[in-house]
Amino acid sequence: EAEVAQSPRYKITEKSQAVAFWCDPISGHATLYWYRQILGQGPELLVQFQDESVVDDSQLPKDRFSAERLKGVDSTLKIQPAELGDSAMYLCASSLDKGVANEQFFGPGTRLTVL
Amino acid sequence: KQEVTQIPAALSVPEGENLVLNCSFTDSAIYNLQWFRQDPGKGLTSLLLIQSSQREQTSGRLNASLDKSSGRSTLYIAASQPGDSATYLCAVSNAGNMLTFGGGTRLMVKP
After folding, report:
1. CB-based contact (8 Å) between A60 and chain B?
2. Is the CB of residue A44 less than 8 Å from the CB of residue A36?
């Protein structure tokens, strides 16, 4: 069964260091999403890609976060420098397209701990 | 700005009970609503997706209803089992298929 892949599954870093997360969506899915989920809360959208283009990054803290999907397939989310408040689960999801009927499928997430 | 609220935040029931989880949203101009399950430390598993033109969807022991005009959805779980213990999240989508999530309901089903 096709799945969204994410790595690493866990990451521990010290504040002010740089971290990067990788996501490989389900094959053929044009739309890719990055969400952040703080413990005990629901996920919040950080950025949405349609193919290689950013559709929405209004909630992405651009002073320290960046995201790219250069070839319209896999994607990388980077934080530099990491802060204590960035500790959270980072979830990647994909859908066939950004049309309204399209179900989103989520990966297992990357749990980030900033010390 | 769309806001999604889930009540109750936590629920503990004995095995075999039927139960209802509630989800409400402030802006009725949604395109679909999804219910997800999340096990501790894991990603989200999609359970049901209801299009805005639909009233309900069913999958096995799960039934989700949608009342778009009143901004409410319910997830009904029949004959609950210990394996149903998880956090259940509802999310609504806008025209660009961006999801806004509720805070979740943590369900514990005791044997």
Report:
1. no
2. yes
How many whole angstroms separate alpha carbon B89 and alpha carbon B25?
Answer: 13
Please count the other Cβ atoms lying within 10 Å of the Cβ belonging to residue B39.
Answer: 11
The residue of A54, A92, A100 whose CB has the most chain B CBs within 10 angstroms, and thus the best one to mutate to test that interface, is A100
Query: What pLDDT score was predicted for residue A98?
Result: 63
Question: Tokens for B7?
Answer: 């009540």
Give the β-pairing of B72-77 and B62-67. antiparallel
CA distance B52 to B50: 6
Query: B91 contacts in A (CB within 8 Å)?
Result: 42
CB contact under 8 A, B44 and A43: yes
Contacts of A24 (CB under 8 A, 6+ apart): A4, A5, A6, A73, A74
Q: Which two tokens stand for residue B50?
A: 């209801």
Q: Residues A43-72: what's their mean pLDDT?
A: 93
Which range, of A34-43, A99-108, B59-68, averages the lowest pLDDT? Answer: A99-108
Chain B residue with minimal CA distance to A111?
B41
